[in-house]
């Protein structure tokens, strides 16, 4: 499993989907200072990586949720990935908006699956887990059964893991922050001091860099 996670991280780094800059941090929409930025939407522009990521998702769905009857993608970053996975598996696809549409039927869920449909949710990135779990809650309220959530990458925030546990949602990711740091350190991309800073950020992202 870890070797697969390392390969995912390697491919994400190769196309600059993930940038590590502990000495020139990014500012997230939340206002947090962060030594890392992950933009998985770039994957869609690289056919080989796109196919690889889709294949990893398909493998996990078959291994963990062979009873899956539908795939759901979280807007906006995971809509395309989820649709690709659903196509490969020959399953129905829906996607979950971040907020209800402001006109017409004001849908939060776009698409159509029967009540009780066993559904796997595809997410691109998990940080605190709040938006991802809101999406899972929307699927449940829609009347479908959530088998679990698969995501490309997670920052491994401790409170995110707790949030998923509390919600009773199993999260499985193709790669994660711990694997990324291990790969970056072993390749010489980051040094000992930067590794310490990156580890400190994950423990206390709200106050890091202030």
Order of helices and strands: HEEEEHEHEEEHEHEHH
Order of adjacent strands in the largest pleated sheet? 7-6-5-8-9-10
Question: How many strands?
Answer: 10
> What's the rounded overall pLDDT mean?
93
- Would you identify the CATH architecture? 3-Layer(aba) Sandwich
Tally of DSSP helical segments: 7
Strand content: 15-25%
Unreliable residue stretches: none
> Assembly type of the shown chains?
single chain
Question: Helix fraction?
Answer: 40-55%
End-to-end gap:
36 Å
CATH topological fold name: Rossmann fold
Q: How many domains make up the coordinates?
A: 1
- CATH class annotation: Alpha Beta
Class by SSE composition? alpha/beta
**Any idea what the shape is?**
globular
Give the biggest beta sheet. Answer: 6 strands, mixed
Radius of gyration: 17 Å
What does this entry look like structurally?
There is one protein chain. The chain is of the alpha/beta class and 210 residues long. It has seven helices and ten strands. The protein has one domain (2-203): Rossmann fold (3-Layer(aba) Sandwich). The protein has helices at residues 2-14, 47-64, 79-89, 130-142, 158-167, 177-186, 192-203, and strands at 18-20, 26-27, 33-34, 36-38, 70-74, 93-96, 109-110, 118-126, 145-154, 171-176. A six-stranded mixed β-sheet has the order 7-6-5-8-9-10, with helices on both faces. It has a two-stranded antiparallel ribbon with strand order 1-4. Strands 2-3 form a two-stranded antiparallel sheet.
């Amino acid at each position: 499993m870890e070797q697969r996670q390392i390969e995912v991280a390697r491919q994400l780094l190769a196309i600059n989907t993930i940038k590590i800059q502990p000495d020139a941090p990014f500012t997230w929409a939340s206002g947090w200072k962060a030594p890392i930025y992950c933009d998985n939407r770039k994957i869609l522009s690289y056919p080989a990586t796109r196919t690889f990521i889709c294949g990893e998702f398909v493998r996990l769905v078959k291994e963990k949720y062979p009873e899956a009857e539908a795939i759901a993608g979280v807007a906006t970053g995971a809509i395309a990935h989820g649709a690709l996975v659903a196509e490969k598996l020959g399953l129905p696809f829906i996607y979950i908006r971040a907020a209800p549409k402001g006109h017409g039927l004001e849908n939060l869920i776009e698409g159509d699956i029967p009540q009780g449909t066993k559904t796997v949710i595809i997410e691109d990135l998990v940080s605190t887990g709040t938006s991802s779990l809101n999406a899972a809650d929307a699927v449940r309220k829609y009347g479908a059964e959530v088998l679990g959530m698969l995501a490309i990458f997670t920052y491994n925030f401790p409170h995110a893991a707790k949030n998923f546990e509390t919600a009773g949602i199993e999260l499985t990711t193709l790669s994660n922050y711990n694997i990324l740091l291990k790969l970056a350190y072993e390749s010489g991309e980051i040094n000992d001091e930067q590794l310490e800073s990156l580890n400190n950020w994950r423990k206390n992202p709200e106050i890091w860099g202030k």
